[in-house]
Fold:
Amino acid sequence: MRHYSVFAIVKEAMGYHQGWERAWRNPTPKAHYDAIIIGAGGHGLATAYYLGKNFGITNVAVIEKGWLGGGNTGRNTTIIRSNYLQDPSAAIYEKSRSLYETLSQDLNYNIMFSPRGVIMLAQTEHEKRGYLRTAHANSLQGVETRFITPREVKELCPIIHLEGPRYPVLGGLWQARGGTARHDAVAWGYARACSAMGMDIIQQCEVTAIHRENGTVSAIETTKGRIGCNKLGIVVAGHSSHVADMAGFRLPIESVALQALVSEPIKPCMDVVVMANTVHGYMSQSDKGEMVIGGGADGYNNYTQRGSFQHIEETVRALVETFPMISRLKMLRQWGGIVDMTGDRSPIISKTPVENCFINCGWGTGGFKAIPGSGWAMAELMAKGHSPLADEFGLNRFREGRFIDESVAAGVAH
Amino acid sequence: MLLLTCPYCGVSADETELSPGGEAHLKRFGPGSSDEDFEGYLFMRHNQKGVHFERWRHTYGCGKWFLAARCTASLEVFGTYSAQTPEPPKEIIEKIQAKRPDWSLT
Structure:
């Protein structure tokens, strides 16, 4: 792999930029791999990367039905934060956030991590009490957050309207180290680093069956033929139930559509991320100047990557009350992604009923922020059979009633 | 936008008038059942990509619960029927099979 640096740019500038090589190879699949990851989104690629980096397992293939990073990795609103209530969540999301801080250097790929700070608005008394509790929990967990007053919210984000008739701002949970990153670059950076370690990223290759011998995974059937493996990681977000069905087990997951939209680009007006969970609206400004807006999830099962219009309307209606200056902005694009929701709104990073088959799913509406930590934990689980970060997120927690209940703690979509 | 016909009041309601209620025809397991069955009843879902039987409530209409057969991959609605039905009725299955010859109830 060619190292990206200012010297490389200068050298290429002399040669009309003809010497750049492809960021990752486009190989044909081998007959057998030590480990196969299904799903070349952020989580799948991060899993492969840390398998190689932390455990020296590089005979790995990442299989992707569509194109690399074309699912939820390319469809989210890029928010990174770790202000969760429960200890296992705080541990994995904080690990993830801290990995993001040095990810550009680690991958030698600019992921444009921007720790601009995240405010979660408290717009009801209940929410205010909830966030005060989260702020206290976070100080015990070593996650730096603080409950701030409406005046401080206004100082951080002058375009906000504090005294809305329906949704007054009563304060906010502020995580100064949270922020955003370029979502595509996260996938591309991991893909390039995986490819450089000799891993095969195989795109446009759909898995059609999972073969087992005596309860142990042995191979997968794909549209590019049969590929053998010692270990299999299923990291396919919205399609988790569909792929788990091929391996013969069910999941406590339902797939629903979550939507986002961006406005026309405007001058810089907002240098923090603001999340309003009561009204299901999230907003930040991209480097291009577009206002990036995330909305609420639909309530019914859906695999179409299209959401319901009324949820867009609800989100926009509420945001216009909180940010009156956006009322005349035109929206440029709107899209949906299929998110995998668990009952307790916490992910599953787990062994499965099939030996040597592992699953990483259930990130629901908030997976982007977790990509490095999720990959770290999943790689450790696949390599060693257990992981301190992942153990609490096992599939057996549903049977045992050990929920990691974030549906109340974190609001809804993130 | 999803349009479902309420089998009770006959109104063709759009989804803003309805509330989704998740997978239909769950077999109920209670006290005395095995842990696996109880877990399955409470948490495990088929979450099909394709034909899906599901519960809906005509919340801003007659208020009744009903069931629907719908494709989650295309949003095509095959039909709606009474909630007092332990399994999908024959005419709904026939309607689905007319459009999806390869499909069968598992």
User: Anything to note?
Assistant: The radius of gyration of chain A is 21 Å.
